[in-house]
Every structure is written in C-alpha cells, then in structure tokens.
Design goal:
This protein has 487 residues and is mainly alpha-helical. 71% of the residues lie in helices and 0% in strands.
Length: 487
C-alpha cells in the first residue's frame, strides 16, 4: 500500500527523479552506443551523484510520509518536515554548472521532495483530519469528566445509558468522516474508531455489571469475600483502561495494567471454591470480565497494519461488495424491463436471499463495516419496494365509489414510482442539475400529499401516511447514494 501510494504521489508532481538515468527533452530519445548507455557522462558527475543520494533518502522517507496519520504538532510530523526541508536545501545547493541534463535532474529531485512536503501537510491539515481530532477530543473530555476524574479523586464513575449513547453518537460521526481514499486519513479514522469502540465495549460491559446483584453475600464463603475484593480492583482497572485508550493517562502503561489484571487472574485461580458451583460461576464471571479488559490492551500498535485500516482488503467488505455488484446487475435488469412496461422480471426472491446473505456478514463490531452493510441493505430494499409498488399500481382497479382523496394519494404514488426509477438509475453528484430537479420533484410530491384532505376516511389516512414515508425513503436513498461515503 505504501509503495503504491508513493508511486501515485510521485506521478502527481511531474516525472520523478530517477538518478539521471532518464533525460527526456520532449522528443524521441536517440540511440546510444552500449558503452555510452552503461556509463554516460552525467552519471559520473559529482552533482548527479549527490542528487542520486538525495533521491535514495527521499525514497526511504516516502513510505513514512504516506502513512503518517498525525497532526502538525506531532513529533513525527516535525521530524519528517525537518528531514524533507533539509533534503530540499541540499537539492537547491547542487551546482549544475548550467548543464541542461543536471538542471532537469535537480528539478525532478526538488519536485519529489516538495511533493512529499505538500502531501504531509495536506493530510495533517485536511478538514476530515480536523473532524477526527474534534470528535476524539470531545470523547476524551466526556470520559475524563464522567469516568477518569471521579475515580482519581476517590469517587465512583458516572456510567449510565446516557454515556453509552453519547459514545455511540461519536462513533457514528467518525464513521461518516470522508477519507477520499487517503491512507493517512483512513489510518487516523481507524485508530480513533478502534479506541472509541473499545471504550464503548468496556462501558457497556460495566453498565450490565452494575445492574446485576452479587450472586452470594460476602459472609457466605471466604472465597466470595476474596472475589469481591478483586471486583473492586477490576472496577479501578476499568477506569485506568479507559484513560489509557483515550490518552488520558500520563503515568500508567498498557504493560503495567496488563500485569495487574494478570495478577488478579492468578489470585482468582488460586481460590479454593470447595466444590461450590455457585461460587465457581461467580469466579468465572469475574475472570471473563478481566479477559474482556485484557483484550483491549493490544491497541498500542493498532492501525499500523495496512490490512486493518484499509478495509478494501477486509473479507467482510469484499463479501458486501460482491453482493452490491449482484444488486447493481439486478437493478439494471429491473429498470430495463420497467421502461418496456414488462412486469414479468421480478427477482424478489433473489433479492430476499441477498438480504439474508448480508445479515450473515460478520462485521466484527467494526462500525465502518456495519455502515457498509447497512447501505447495501438499503440498496436491496429500495429495489424490492420499487417492484412492490409497480405491482400494486398494475393490479389497482379503482371503483366508482372510491374516495376522491384516496384516488389523489394513488396518483401521487404513481408519480413517486416513476421518480424512484430515476433515483435507482441516478449515477451523478448532488451538484448535478438532474439531482436538483429530482429532489425538487420529490419535494413537490410531499407537498401534494400534505394537501390531501382525508375527510375522516381512515383508509385514506393510512394510504397518505405510507405514501409520505415512501417519498421520504426515496429522498433518503438519493441522499445516501450521493454522499460520497467510503469505508
């Protein structure tokens, strides 16, 4: 991945410096004698030797720049910026003696360094990177106020459903951040999501524990009293884990907390439960809780592995994309037959099977994979509802006694069916005139439904309510289709 990004990056800034081996003057290259090709004059020049050395240093820094996911005030950013600036100054100091070949090589070397500097700055200052940092700071402040600070002062953490829901909102906000396919932004989003989801998992587990009464009183058995003491330590460790995950702990480390939790496990294993099944189950419950905390302590290097933050390589994403490709094929067939007025093509059973397939995709609690699956489900459901409405419109046989308001609702549904076909086939952007027109037409249909007076007719009320929901679903589908989200 890094090499690919570096290669693309170099191609963005003109012809990359290649040690002077390629001197293209804008015309066809002349044939050279084999001896001259092996040892051309400019290859032996001291200036070319120095430029080639600079190129090698740039090549070693390229992958680091292409995967850096931090901010401008980070130590690694300043180091990379300092190194690249040094190389740029060295390139500027190369004496080309006015030779066009050396001047061209120096220019390409400078372009490579300047390109990396731009790429480094663009990612560190990108609006999406700022959003990731903003959400992360909000999460840190919330958890510091509600969990970390109270425990440090000797109090109890304020963990409740409201806190868990607030964390879920932040997870969704991070999921919607657009990375434009940039590796540093993907990496930053992945790392922020991983930590926030881990904290959310810890909080949800803690909330469940608070609602459970202890299986046995402390005096029932000496082992129970010891287990209760470990439970107090586990509660403290939970707060320390949250602080570590969110960067709120200046003294503790993952290794130290791991040792403490391992010692708690050893203490529980050494207990004599005297064959009491109830006490064994209680001990098992606490051990499982400790294991739940330990599994989140391997996040120090999380996000360094390309296969983790580049979800394009994820098996679940590949499975979802395969389903989406199949859905796209079915959608094209449905729209093609619909234009011809042919209602015989109804792959509804096949679409239902795809929904079942998507439901079985393993998301591994990854919010981005969950969102990708949700969007695929919406695409399938949009085709199913389109087929259902077309069939209902074809079967409709209004009688002379039909309520006028009810007839008006059906007229709107007929228009919505045509508009949904346009929405299903739309493949543009929100700035396109066709999108703006389609959105306006859908809004007009909502206004038409709002103007329908049911006159107390319950059937008309129900039909109008369903039609409004149908129109809103089309708008939501169109909005989802054009929001340029990527995993």
């Amino acid at each position: 991945m890094c090499a690919n990004v570096f290669g693309v990056l170099k191609s963005l800034f003109g012809k990359p410096f290649d040690g002077g081996k390629r001197m293209d003057h804008g015309g066809p290259q002349q044939h050279q004698h084999p001896t001259e090709q092996q040892q051309p004059y400019h290859q032996r020049h001291p200036a070319m030797t120095r430029l080639y050395e600079v190129h090698n240093e740039v090549a070693s820094l390229g992958p680091q720049v292409c995967t850096f996911s931090g901010l401008q005030d980070d130590r690694d950013y300043k180091r990379l910026e300092r190194e690249l600036t040094r190389l740029l100054l060295q390139v500027d100091q190369v004496d080309t003696e006015g030779k066009p070949e050396l001047q061209g090589a120096r220019k390409r070397a400078a372009q490579e360094v300047e390109g990396l500097l731009r790429y480094l700055e663009e990612n560190a200052t990108h609006p999406s990177r700022a959003v990731i940092e903003e959400v992360s700071n909000e999460a840190r402040q919330l958890l510091d106020d509600r969990v970390v600070a109270p425990q440090r002062s000797g109090g109890a953490a304020e963990i409740n459903d409201e806190l868990v829901e607030a964390l879920q909102v932040m997870v969704l906000r991070l999921t919607q951040v657009k990375t434009e396919g940039r590796v540093p932004l993907r990496k930053a989003r992945y790392r922020a999501l991983t930590r926030l989801c881990a904290v959310q998992d810890v909080m949800e587990g803690r909330t469940e524990q608070q609602t459970l009464s202890l299986p046995l009183p402390g005096e029932a058995h000496e082992a129970v009293h010891r287990i209760n003491q470990v439970m107090v330590k586990v509660s403290v460790a939970r707060g320390q884990l949250v602080a570590l995950l969110m960067g709120l702990s200046g003294r503790d480390s993952c290794a130290h907390l791991s040792r403490l939790l391992t010692e708690m496990q050893a203490e529980l294993d050494a207990l004599d439960v005297s064959g009491d099944a109830a006490i064994r189950n209680y001990r098992k419950q606490v051990v499982e809780e400790i294991n739940g905390l330990l599994k989140h302590l391997d996040l120090e290097g999380e996000g360094e592995d390309t296969r983790r933050y580049d979800l394009g390589q994820n098996n679940s994403i590949r499975e979802i994309e395969a389903v989406r490709a199949h859905v796209s094929h079915l959608r094209d067939g449905v729209l093609r037959h619909s234009v011809m007025g042919d209602l015989s093509f109804r792959p509804k059973a096949e679409l239902q099977g795809l929904l079942t397939h998507l439901d079985q995709v393993d998301t591994a609690k990854n919010p981005c994979i969950r969102e990708a699956r949700r969007r695929a489900v919406v695409e399938v459901q949009a085709i199913i509802t389109f087929l259902d409405l077309r069939e209902a419109l074809a079967r409709r046989q209004p009688g002379p006694s039909e309520h006028p308001a009810h007839r008006a609702v059906w007229l709107v549904l007929g228009s919505l069916s045509d508009l949904q076909a346009q929405a299903l086939g739309f493949d543009g952007k929100r700035v396109d005139k066709s999108y703006i027109l389609l959105e306006e037409l859908l809004t007009k249909q909502l206004l038409a439904l709002d103007a329908v007076d049911p006159q107390g007719d319950d059937t008309t009320k129900m039909a109008r309510k369903q039609a409004v929901k149908f129109a809103q679903n089309i708008l939501n589908y169109l909005d989802m289709k054009t929001d340029e989200w990527e995993y």
